[in-house]
Amino acid sequence: KQTIKDLDFHGKKALVRVDFNVPLTKDGDVSDDRRIRAALPTLNHILEQGGALILVSHLGRPSGDPTADAPFTMDKVAARLQELIGRPVQKADDTVGPDAQAKCSALKPGEIVVLENVRFNTGEKKGDPEFARALASLADCYVNDAFGTCHRNEASMVAVPEQFPPDRRAIGFLVEKELTILDQLLGKPKPPMVAVMGGAKVSDKIGVIENLLKKVDTLLIGGAMTYTFLKAQGHEIGKSRCEDDRLDVARRLLDLGGGKIKLPEDHLVTTSIDPKEAKTSVVEGSDLPEGQIGIDIGPKTAAAYAEIIKNAGTVVWNGPMGKFEDEPFRAGTLKVAEAMASSPAVTAVGGGETAEAVEQFGLADKVSHVSTGGGAFLEALEGKAFKSLDVIPDRS
Length: 396
Ligand code: 3PG
Prior knowledge:
Layout: E1 13-18, H1 34-48, E2 52-56, H2 66-69, H3 75-85, E3 90-91, H4 98-105, E4 112-114, H5 122-126, H6 129-136, E5 141-145, H7 159-162, E6 169-171, H8 173-186, E7 193-197, H9 206-213, E8 218-221, H10 225-232, H11 247-257, E9 261-262, E10 266-270, E11 280-284, E12 293-297, H12 299-310, E13 314-318, H13 331-342, E14 346-349, H14 352-360, E15 369-370, H15 375-381, H16 387-390
Parallel strand pairs: 1-2, 1-5, 2-4, 3-4, 5-6, 7-8, 7-13, 8-9, 13-14, 14-15
Antiparallel strand pairs: 10-11, 10-12
């Protein structure tokens, strides 16, 4: 793909689509600025090359009701960017309206403006060409550095870049890095290739598991989806979470996997998912006692998974092994995270919750890559192509 290295930004205004859809606290403060930090190399490069920045992102899923949507303003995000980039950042009160137009037309090289939440405009979701033209008219060229949004076909991802001549469209360093790691995972992964899949639902991961089974030597299962697989095999799962309407899917995936899919061989069980009331114990084997809830992989499973991860050439991990946000149920997810951190393999972590776990354990710098994508990372692992990237030409 054409990258920002291929474009000349001198004296130019670059419209950069970023994914600043960051988690907010109840008071509306940015609680995790990982996605903002991840865009800095691209932003700094364009500024150093003599360009000016017009940044556009969505934040949350506004409903169209201005009162309910007020917390989704980009004000706090712009303020956090200003702290992180160490230069003044202006914030426009609209996306393509009079304030955005005035601020963008007065923009000088080295200056930065953050437009208001692009999803405050109904044309964004619809991919409306008129809205796309209005947004594109603010700038001289377009950069996609919004990896987390690449699976969306909204105006700012597809119709806006189409407004620019092909030689003025590029991907930023973040998208480039994410695509490089995806290629290492899905192209010719260094063997043995291992996938670790956790989380609550099999239904969210069917396409990912199907595609990964074509690539991996071993697929390790954890999280609550374990119990849908175990029930599908005819085991007793106590009161564990289970998708009863997906047992046939689970059976099909197990058949498809041949011997590649590994399920936990022991379990941390509890009588209550409330950590204050939890009485936990470890159960060996594949059958859980009546009334017990499987809440984490057991210590034997954690050790076995850690060993497989340490001996792998490539590992991709999505989905926690248990209810890691509560201390009594954390051990399995922590052990897998530590194994990822100390493995010599190419190790990639993706999906909101898993990235959060690795950050929380302070291990984000020890794995090869923590993706900024949630849904986008999963769809990429499913092998889906993205229109938002198809509109960026290949390098000539
Ligand atoms: C994400 O957080 O996965 C992206 O920012 C996309 O957000 P969306 O799911 O609201 O489109």
